[in-house]
Amino acid sequence: MFTVTVRDHMMVAHSFRGEVFGPAQRLHGATYVVDASFSGPELGPDGILLDIGAATGLLHEVLAGLTYRNLDDDPAFSGTNTSTEVLAQVVADRLAPGVASLGPVTRLVVTLHESHVAWASYERALEEAR
Question: Could you tell me which of 34, 86, 97, 98 has the fewest CB atoms within 10 Å of its CB?
Answer without folding.
Answer: 97
